[in-house]
Fold tRNA-(Ms[2]io[6]A)-hydroxylase.
Amino acid sequence: MLGLKLLTDPRWANIAEGNLEEILTDHAWCEQKAASNAITLITQNPELEDLVHELTAIAIEEMEHFKMVIEIIKERGYTLGRERKDDYVGQLMKFSKKDGSRNQAFIDRLLFAAMIEARSCERFRVLSKNIKDEKLAKFYYDLMVSEANHYTTFLNFARKYATDVDVDKRWQEWLDFEGELIQSYGKKEYIHG
């Protein structure tokens, strides 16, 4: 469904489970950044009523996820650490086209968001199937479903609003780039690490 070129090695879940405080902190900040990205897309495209409506709901849902992760951190006696730099997201941002038309930049921002949601969905699936903690496994299963919905929302908006971009071709370029990029990740207790 997601079209990702390389799936995460299930052993990554063992790395994550070995340092739950770290993975939960990283996850919390990923949710906050996802909400911020949705808000940025809204502020840059306020005339697109359906996009504003849908991305407002996503931003709220992402902040609800942030709150849920914070509650898990607190329940377990952990502390929310500072925001982590996300090298994976930084590399995806560099791949985004910024020098074309306004529409090309907009479509790439939507595809950038779809890619992050797709990989997050895939990582949450790995966690839900491979960690021993049943409560967290269920939590990550539920989030996997949510992230899949976000992924399709961003991809559908890219297809709807593209005027001078072949979205399917550009999405394939994103998938190819991410497939190469992700080979360097999956070794740390970060959602995209």
